[in-house]
Amino acid sequence: MFSAPLEVMLERIATRETNPFGKTLDERERIIKDTAEVEPLLRASATMEIDTRQPLADTVRQLRDLIGQVKTGKSAACE
């Protein structure tokens, strides 16, 4: 699963220019509520976590490594 703290997600949503969702107070409250309800379910079933606070190149490298492990049948280590 890809993850970032809620504060980071809200900051990214507030500053992005490509999607208007999340700009209103109601939408931000929905994001907070949905995150609180859904994130624990995702974490319970995830076998790997990629923290997207790291530089983009590192996130891409981790994803590429994971894809390589799947293709070769190797087990992915949780991070």
TrEMBL record:
Tell me the domain of life.
Bacteria
Please state what the protein is called: Shikimate kinase
Instruction: List the source organism.
Output: Nonomuraea helvata
Matching entries from InterPro entries are given as: P-loop_NTPase
